[in-house]
Amino acid sequence: MKVLVIGGDGYCGWATALYLSNRGYEVAILDNLIRRHWDNELCIETLTPIASIQQRIQRWKDLTGKTIDLFIGDINNYEFLKNAMLRFEPDSVVHFGEQRSAPFSMIDREHAVLTQVNNVVGTLNLLYVMHDHFPDCHLVKLGTMGEYGTPNIDIEEGYITIEHNGRKDTLPYPKQPGSFYHLSKVHDSHNIHFACRIWGLRATDLNQGVVYGVLTDETGMDEMLINRLDYDGVFGTALNRFCIQAAIGHPLTVYGKGGQTRGFLDIRDTVRCIELAVNNPADRGEFRVFNQFTELFSVGDLANMVQKAGTSVGLKVEINHLENPRVEKEEHYFNAKNTNLLDLGLQPHFLSDSLLDSLLNFSIKYKQRVDENQILPKVKWKG
Ligand code: NAD
Ligand code: USQ
User: Fold this and answer.
1) Is the CB of 300 under 6 A from ligand 2?
2) What is the pLDDT of residues 46-75, one digit of tens each?
3) Can you give the pLDDT at residue 355?
4) How many domains does the chain have?
């Protein structure tokens, strides 16, 4: 099966491209390398030293004999996207290629507009290429758990059945996202759902939780294949940041009370979930939604777990409660369903088993690369 990985130079995309290639899929990566450019603009760097995409792909070929095709360009450029798709002729497109940081989208008007145009227009272009040239291709789109926000009722997988004034219907689950970035994902979901309804496309929206970890079987094969690991206040995510903070002796940066609860998953489960979605395509006209996370934690729980793991390897880990730069509930109900991927055969990795190996030890290994000035959050939701 031919799988095009859009955003394949990024954190989730690179791990996924190698995993699928290793499992015998014919893989191509499409990426405009804009993430590397944004890092340069913000003067930030991944903790791990990543090679260029060309070097990465060459080393993969040298090690395994497997070829990954490369298309460098922007999916906001319709002609480029169409031509790349026509050349590769994918059976499935896995779409990771978006601006994915909530703080980045909240820097100012320009970054909010950039985020929404990049994400919404890119996805819309993809829907049109599929409609015009690949109506049978399966779109596996990375959405986010944050589309739902933190409602005071259980979160279903995409849809909810509602009874109202004596009538009943199953409707898209209400969305209350917490940033212009998370909103871009909601807009994408609506556009994809609409394209499935009117054109009969097939799509799976993977509402992924926060991903942690850096090691997969493939990226661990060689230093040149190493994945990125962001720890800065813009692109770094909660648990990855806490481990790196623990490694350098920086107090853990819990925002506010720390009761913010989210879904989390190991990057080794991200790649497996993608494979499960690709292998079990949605039907024609179906807009399928899976909640892609394995465990729920509050950020306060995470800080305590990192403190405990750090102490076990001789680190002195302090926890700080900073004034919250975001506008979000800090204590709330959160109970989300995640049975669809488990039913397809996902066997989760659990954080309690992998915190040290997959994350803390990596953080310790590369800690001399940390720029401490990039740790505290600088972007505030209220401007
Ligand atoms: P990333 O920034 O590491 O990778 C995204 C890649 O997409 C980058 O290589 C970037 O250059 C590319 N890209 C962006 N816009 C593009 C465009 N217009 N044309 C071509 N390429 C483009 O991000 P990530 O952490 O790997 O996230 C991948 C996807 O998964 C995103 O859609 C994100 O919203 C989603 N997601 C990520 C997480 C997480 O914790 N990292 C959690 C849930 C969902
Ligand atoms: N947080 C802290 N301290 C930190 C960093 C974050 O307390 O140092 C808190 C935030 O306030 C928030 C929670 O941790 O309540 C999650 O923040 P995050 O930065 O780890 O994740 P988020 O902004 O939600 O975004 C990340 C990815 C995004 C993905 C999303 C999945 O960057 O691409 O869509 O996780 S989810 O959160 O499920 O929507």
Assistant:
1) no
2) 999 999 999 999 999 999 999 999 999 999
3) 83
4) 1
What distance in angstroms lies between residue 36's CA and the mean position of ligand 1's atoms?
11
Residues in a beta bridge with 142: 206
The minimum-distance atom of ligand 1 relative to the CA of 74 is 19
Ligand 2 centre and the CA of 146: distance in Å? 9
Tell me whether residue 272 is in a domain. yes
CATH number for the domain that contains residue 278: 3.40.50.720
pLDDT at 296 over 90: yes
For residue 103, being part of any structural domain is answered with yes
Residue 159 falls within a domain, yes or no? Answer: yes
Buried b (16+ CB within 10 A) or exposed e, 93-119: bbbbbbbbbbbbbbbeeebbebbbebb
Helix (H, G, I), strand (E, B) or coil at 266: strand
Give the CA diameter of the chain.
64
Distance between Cα 302 and ligand 1 center (Å): 23
Q: 139 CB contacts (<8 Å, ≥6 apart)?
A: 92, 93, 95, 126, 127, 130, 192, 201, 202, 203, 204
Q: For 314-369, how does the pLDDT look when each residue is reduced to its tens digit (9 = 90+)?
A: 999 999 999 999 999 999 999 999 999 999 999 999 998 888 777 999 999 999 99
Q: Any catalytic annotation for residue 141?
A: no
Please work out whether the CB of residue 248 comes within 6 Å of at least one atom of ligand 1.
Answer: no
Contact between 265 and 237 (Cβ < 8 Å)? no
154-193 pLDDT, tens digit per residue, is 999 999 999 999 999 999 999 999 999 999 999 999 999 9
In a domain, 380, yes or no: no
Question: Has 366 been annotated as catalytic?
Answer: no
Q: Residue 169 is part of which domain span? A: 2-374
d(CA 213, CA 243): 10
pTM value is: 0.98
What count of other Cβ atoms lies within 10 Å of the Cβ of residue 316?
A: 9
* Residue 372: half-sphere exposure toward Cβ, Cα within 13 Å: 8
Radius of gyration of the chain (CA): 20
